[in-house]
Amino acid sequence: MRFDDEADLPVRRGRLTDHERLSLLNARVELEDALAVPLGADRWSTWGQGEMGPEPLPDWVITSEGAVDTELGVVKTGKEAEVFLVRRELPGGPSVLLAEKRYRSSDHRLFHRDAGYLEGRRMKESRMSRAVANRTSFGRKLISEQWAAAEFAALCGLWTAGAPVPYPVQRVGTDLLLEFIGDSDGGAAPRLAQLRPDPDSLADLWGQLREGLGALARAGFTHGDLSAYNVLVYQGQLVLIDLPQVVDVVVNPRGRELMERDVRNIGTWFAARGLRDAEGEMREMVDYVGGEAGLGWRSEEGGGDGEGGEDAGAGAGAEEKVMGGEGV
Asked: 3-class DSSP state for residue 253?
């Protein structure tokens, strides 16, 4: 049966658009903000919103809807994103420290390689495509969300593949919640660039790096912007971070070049710290990761300067201001 006053009502079918999904998320956030948050906390836990990390979940992940999040301070600030230390806890129950990485959007500087990164990526809606192309306020927000989504997807895949990366807990818009790499008191793990390891420790870290890059290569990737500034070392264990520019070395025509550049960029740091036969070690690692990726090539004798130009060496991390180390 149909009533006369229903004749002109539109019927909505199909999936929500990205814009509609974002509007619903904002409405949910406003509703939650209206609820009283326990004293001392900043918000209710965002668990269940956005994308979740890969299963099985580590046993330390708190999934209760009754949990709360408290911001404890800034871990790192940079021109592309900021990282905050967040405590997620169930009042009267367990708690865990997380690193919340917030990508900058319309009111901040943009990513220094966003044009190349976004090239070839299609958007479902022409309005969004035009906004990105014209770099409107809405378009810049979409760009930063694409970067966040790219890093979260990379972390999920690499974690599952056994690579030494932080566990990705969840993504909500341009914010990533990640495993905090540091101690239980909130002390962040130092970057590799901050260390002065002895010869034995240096050799051990080089071996860990070889295996870590091998894990990325077996998954078909290279970091894309690797340097001593986006590698953490905690309790002697190496962790790779900052992966929004991860490169598919099989489909990218510059895959070999970028893989070799990654090795030589960070290899230069090891060479400066006294790694024995550094040039030979770099050639061997290039051959190893190329083989693990199934590319079937060998590095040229004598190496080179890493083909990185001005983007090589310290990379983007050198331009960031570090505050008390880095936790993601």
From this structure: coil
Over its C-alpha atoms, the chain yields an Rg (Å, rounded) of 22
Q: Please tell me the distance from the alpha carbon of residue 150 to that of residue 146, in angstroms, as a whole number.
A: 6
DSSP at 229: T
The distance of Cα 185 from the centroid of its chain, to the nearest Å, equals 23
Residue 84 has pLDDT above 70, yes or no: yes
Angle between the 137-160 and 126-134 helix axes, to the nearest 10 degrees? 100
**The Cα angle at residue 270 between residues 280 and 225, in degrees rounded to 5:** 100
Query: pLDDT tens digits, residue range 215-253?
Result: 999 999 999 999 999 999 999 999 999 998 899 998 999
Least Cα distance to 288 among 227, 225, 211, 202 occurs for 211
CB 110 within 8 A of CB 186: no
Centre a 10 Å sphere on the Cβ of residue 128 and count the other Cβ atoms it contains: 16
CB atoms inside a 10 Å sphere around CB 173: 19
Q: Which of 170, 41, 45, 178 is nearest to 101 (CA)?
A: 178
**Maximum Cα–Cα distance across the chain:** 85
Q: Which helix (H) or strand (E) holds 84?
A: strand 81-89
Q: Kindly list the distances between the CA atom of residue 143 and the CA atoms of 95, 123, 153, 328, in Å, as whole numbers in the listed order.
A: 33, 11, 15, 21
For residue 190, whether the previous peptide bond is cis, meaning omega lies within 30 degrees of 0, is no
**Joined tokens for residue 41:** 């906390």
Distance CA 44, CA 70 (A): 9
Q: Are 326 and 320 in contact (CB under 8 A)?
A: no
Buried-exposed string 247-267: b where 16+ CB fall within 10 A, e elsewhere: bebeebeebbbbbbbbbbbbb
Per-residue pLDDT tens for 172-217? 999 999 999 999 999 999 999 999 999 999 999 999 999 999 999 9
